[in-house]
Design a protein that fits this description.
Rossmann fold
Length: 274
């Protein structure tokens, strides 16, 4: 029982209609959802990889999704299997906005302050409206993670999260170790795509330097190195860069580091610069 109680507790919040709309526009054309939002929607979102990611952080104790559910009956089976708590948001105002982002942010903050056992908050959205929520969750001492769509996720939201995953990168990646990262064009100047190998290399170089400075020794646990790398680059995902593991990612940079041992997750040493 004590072990169960010590397991991290996760609250998962889906900005479902917005998330579905982005994926629908990607699949059928930029204006597809605007033109078809008041018709029965095809099941475009696969909940499984997002649920698996959230479960990797801890026990999912809250699983709540927001949207105008009268058009999403085709998701019934997925939602029931996942045990999702559905919050109905009817469109309001001339622009027909359903105000899900406001309600979702308020509910998340309320849950954070009501349920002290919550350790991780996962927000499934690409919307910049959740930047303030991410900042408040961090201030409460909780871990905030985001799941969005590359090219449509606000770069400031990504930076505000402890960790940010792109939806398509949550699916199993090709087994080839040298598989190139998928290219996804940015949709808007404020949106962000998955980090490139060059960006990941630069962040790794900074992480190595900081680890050595903080520890006072050139003997760096790989787990600690990855934690710091994700803090510097929240959207980092080695699988999206064609690497089957973090160790495989590190193997790409012999000019930056060398392996000391591979015990207990492994330890590396930074190669002297210059």
């Amino acid at each position: 029982m004590a072990e169960r109680e010590s397991t991290p507790k996760v609250a998962l919040y889906w900005d479902f209609e917005n998330f579905h709309a982005i994926l629908g526009n990607l699949e059928y054309g930029e204006q597809w959802y605007r033109e078809n939002r008041f018709t029965p929607q095809p099941p475009i979102v696969d909940l499984s990889p997002v649920l698996e990611y959230a479960a990797s952080l801890g026990d999912i104790t809250i699983n709540r999704a927001y949207g105008n559910w009268q058009w999403f009956a085709n998701y019934r089976h997925q939602l029931n299997i996942a045990g999702v708590d559905l919050i109905q948001m009817f469109p309001r105002g001339q622009n027909m906005k359903n105000s899900a982002d406001i309600r979702m942010a308020l509910d998340a903050l309320s849950d954070v302050h009501t349920y002290q056992h919550l350790t991780h908050i996962v927000v499934v959205s690409s919307d910049s409206d959740f930047i303030s929520l991410a900042q408040k969750v961090k201030q409460s001492g909780r871990f905030i993670a985001g799941v969005g769509v590359a090219g449509f996720s606000n770069r400031f939201l990504v930076a505000s999260c402890n960790e940010f995953k792109f939806y398509h990168n949550l699916f199993p990646q090709p087994p080839a170790a040298d598989a190139p990262a998928a290219e996804q064009p940015a949709h808007a100047p404020e949106a962000t795509a998955a980090p490139t190998m060059e960006e990941a290399r630069a962040a790794l170089q900074r992480a190595l330097r900081q680890c050595v400075e903080r520890r006072g020794e050139n003997y760096i646990p790989c787990g600690l190195l990855k934690q710091l790398l994700v803090r510097l680059l929240p959207a980092f995902d080695e699988r999206a860069l064609g690497c089957s593991s973090f160790s495989a990612f590190l193997d790409r940079f012999p000019e930056l580091l060398q392996w000391v041992d591979r015990d207990a997750g492994g330890h590396v040493a930074a190669v002297a610069e210059g």
